[in-house]
Every structure is written in C-alpha cells, then in structure tokens.
Amino acid sequence: MSRLVLASASPRRRDLLADRLGLDIDVRPADVDEAPKHGEAPAAMVQRLARRKVSAVQAEMEDLVVAADTVVIVDGDVMGKPETPHEAERMLRALSGREHSVLTGVAVRLGPKGASGVDRTKVRFRRLGPGEIQWYVDTGEPLDKAGAYAIQGIGGIFVEHIEGSETGVIGLPLGRLAVLVASVGANLMDYRRSDLLP
C-alpha cells in the first residue's frame, strides 16, 4: 500500500497534512546540511533544500515523498530560525511595522518522478512595542520558527496584512503542494485517513 512520507520533523507541516487535510502520513525527517551556498538566491536555496530533503529519505517506489524548506526575507536578508531569545528579539524588531516575504520551497517524489516549486507570500507586521516583543519571546514560541514567529499561533496577532498563502507562511503551501503532487500523477486526497473516507 502506498504511503505519504513527510521528509520533515516540523510539527507545523505534520499538522497541516494530518490535522487540516486528514491525511495518513509517515513522518521521516531528512538529515541534510541546510547551510546556504555562497551567493545563492533565497528562492534557489529553499527549492534546493526541499529537493535534497525529498531525495534523502528512503521510501518505496509507490510512496509519495513530500519535503519543504521555509525562510523569511526582509531587506534582502534571510532569516532562518533564531537560536537564542536575543536573536528572536532582533528578528522581531526588524519585522516590526514592515512588510517581509516568506519563501517556501516544496518538493515531491513518486518513484522516478519528481517536481518542485517555490511559494512566495508577503506579510506585513503592525508596529510592535519593546514590551510586546519581550512578552512574545518569553512565551518560547519564536525559538523554532523561521523569522521568529508563528502566524498560526500567538504570533498571528502581529500580522496586519497577508498577500498569498497562509499555509506557505506556516511552512507548507497546500495549494502549491496539490499542484506538484498532481504533476507526478498522484492526488493528495488518495492519502486520506481511512476513518475519514465516505
């Protein structure tokens, strides 16, 4: 029986597939070096990393493998996940009152067929006060999120406007994913949990 394999340890991506879409997934995090290459454009980087992740996971020929990589871009600078509370504060100050882009590279593999793409969403933050930033950092939520915030969590209160895919900001643009899956001859709904089928 074919399976949908998620090549990611991200609980947000798992939740999007398992909880929002009701898919039966097998989580197998890919172990790849996520360091950017010198001079590499952010869109090229997230697409390359998504492809590497989808290739790094062992799966049967009939299994659909899905991977993604997300970064936040402001003033041309790439923001990954903050490693410390201080770094999270710095990122949130940079995003305050401004628009930024969220790029998510997505890759899929089904047997010998593969496809990939990049989703771009624009997000504008309202102006944040220093106390508000400190309060948010103290919640712990920013520490494992690209750009130091979770739009689907507490960080959603900072968002003034969004243009594009909200699920792309979370880490897996579902519309783009469905198109890529169709391009390799599959359908996401074929992986629905059996208890949700009619």
Automatic annotation (TrEMBL):
Q: Which domain of life is it from?
A: Bacteria
Q: Which InterPro entries match?
A: ITPase-like_fam (IPR029001), Maf-like (IPR003697)
What this protein needs as a cofactor is:
a divalent metal cation
Q: Give the EC class as a word.
A: hydrolase
- Annotated active site: 69 (proton acceptor)
Supply the EC number(s): 3.6.1.9
Name the GO terms of the biological process aspect: nucleotide metabolic process
Q: Which PANTHER family match?
A: BIFUNCTIONAL DTTP/UTP PYROPHOSPHATASE/METHYLTRANSFERASE PROTEIN-RELATED, BIFUNCTIONAL DTTP_UTP PYROPHOSPHATASE_METHYLTRANSFERASE PROTEIN-RELATED
Its function, per the record, reads: Nucleoside triphosphate pyrophosphatase that hydrolyzes dTTP and UTP. May have a dual role in cell division arrest and in preventing the incorporation of modified nucleotides into cellular nucleic acids.
By what name is this protein known?
Answer: dTTP/UTP pyrophosphatase
Q: What species was this sequence derived from?
A: Euzebya pacifica
